Amino acid sequence: MSVLAIDAGTTGVTAVVVSPQGDIVAKGYQEFAQHFPRPGWVEHAPEEIWQATLEATRAALERFDVSQLRAIGITNQRETVLLWDRETLGSPRRAIVWQDRRTADICTRLRDEGHEGRVRELTGLRLDPYFSGTKLRWLAEEEPRTWALVEEGRYAVGTVDSYLIARMTRGLHHVTDVSNASRTLLFDLAAGDWSEELCGIFGVPRDALPDLVPSWGEVALSDPRSFLDLELPIAGIAGDQQSALFGQTCFDEGDAKCTYGTGSFILTNTGSELVRSDAGLLTTAAWRSPSGELTYALEGAIFVTGAAVQWLRDGLQIVGSAAETEAIAATVSSTDGVVFVPALTGLGAPHWDPDARGTILGITRGTTRSHLVRATLEAITFEVRDVLETMPARTSLAVDGGACANDLLCQLQADQLGLTVERPRLTETTALGAAFLAGLGVGVWGSTDELRETWQLDRSFTPSPDRATADAAHRRWTEAVERSKGWALL
């Protein structure tokens, strides 16, 4: 029996069918619109996310025998917050996306009120617009009529996984797992539960939040009237980066991966130990077993990597597709001194500056689109290096996500890090992780050892021995980052 996995990302929804051998045997994808009502604001229409989920699933199952499906796994963009009517399932407003920076002033105010230390102690996170709690505080302050219906219990609050499960079950279930809950600023990491204290700080009614369920195991049943005639157990839930960690079979303490998506995220499994960082990393929940055992992770969150390539395509319109970037960048041997800091929505780890803005330095009359495209790929590798330098030393890095199909990017990454970069045969590890969780929950796989046997290497990228060139390029990048900081305040 196979598993259907839904990967509701930031720019679109991917649906895959994963066989017991760990192969993706069917796939569908549907993009949805990005809304930018003001500079620094990013929104998604919940109904468009749902329709994209239906279309992607329909495409994946078009030529697949649905009687062979055993369960559904869900993974999703994290931190994005949605409101919906518990009865009609309609949403009163668009979702506020994780990239959105509108709550920078709220973060400053909470910091000035002395809350940051306690928030960091309880959540492992920072007071940053990235996380859900500040977005909910903004809604309460700026849209009081809408928020009144949250307080009355008519509107539910949740992340994308909660919303999709509500839609799949005709509103019967309002649930989430610890990997998503731990990104809201409302979850007590040590207690493993929602925090009344944090809900008070951010002004969020505890009753509006979803119930917490294990990351795998049967938690709900899809309603065939709502979800394409499918009546299947929803048996796996995880935020996208924790799902990718699971999909890369990083089950042991010390295992790590880097996912190239809209942003890039480096996670290290820290086991049952809640490890805190003073170097700009986040402490987060990775997953919780049906027996209640909580696994933690350290995370370096980089906001814009793949989104920078999307900007080259949609904003500057100098590439036709992300796939073209490898060939275009390869037409030049260097950027000729051009450095691009893609702080299009501020800077995440390890800098954490919501007021930084995108910066391109070193442009001359001789600069071409090839130089800018190559500078974009190099920027991704620099951002990953900045995060990895705050983590324990390692000899290799497992990568995944759409951009790792770019051989030049992987080679540039290996050269910049001085590490071997390993790309798995299946790079859709975010969706794969959701499938693994759901399959583990219903017995398609009997243990994590069985899942580990499905992992296969596609290619290793060996670093150049020339560290001087790599280090010089990184020093130039570091200077460019400093110049990008605080730009929105000028």
What does this structure look like?
Strand 21, helix 13 and strand 22 form a beta-alpha-beta unit. The chain has helices at residues 46-61, 104-112, 116-123, 132-142, 144-151, 160-168, 178-181, 196-202, 240-247, 306-314, 325-329, 369-388, 407-417, 429-442, 448-452, 467-484, and strands at 2-8, 12-18, 24-31, 43-44, 69-76, 82-85, 95-96, 155-158, 175-176, 187-188, 193-194, 211-212, 216-221, 233-239, 256-260, 264-271, 282-288, 294-302, 339-341, 359-361, 396-400, 420-424, 457-461. Helices cover 33% and strands 23% of the residues. It is α+β, with helices and mostly antiparallel strands and 490 residues long. Helix 4 (132-142) crosses helix 5, helix 9 packs across helix 14 and helix 10 (306-314) packs antiparallel against helix 12. The protein is globular.
Q: Can you give me a brief rundown of this structure?
A:
It contains 16 helices and 23 strands. It is an alpha+beta fold and about 500 residues long.
Largest sheet: 7 strands, mixed
Radius of gyration: 21 Å
Rough outline: globular
Number of alpha- plus pi-helical segments = 16
Q: Which structural category do the helix and sheet elements fall into?
A: alpha+beta
| Strand fraction | 15-25%
User: Could you tell me the mean pLDDT?
Assistant: 94
Compute the number of strand runs.
23
Query: In what order do the strands lie side by side in the largest sheet?
Result: 17-18-16-15-21-22-23
- Which stretches are low in confidence, meaning pLDDT under 50 for 5 or more residues running? none
How far apart lie the N and C ends?
58 Å
Helix content: 25-40%
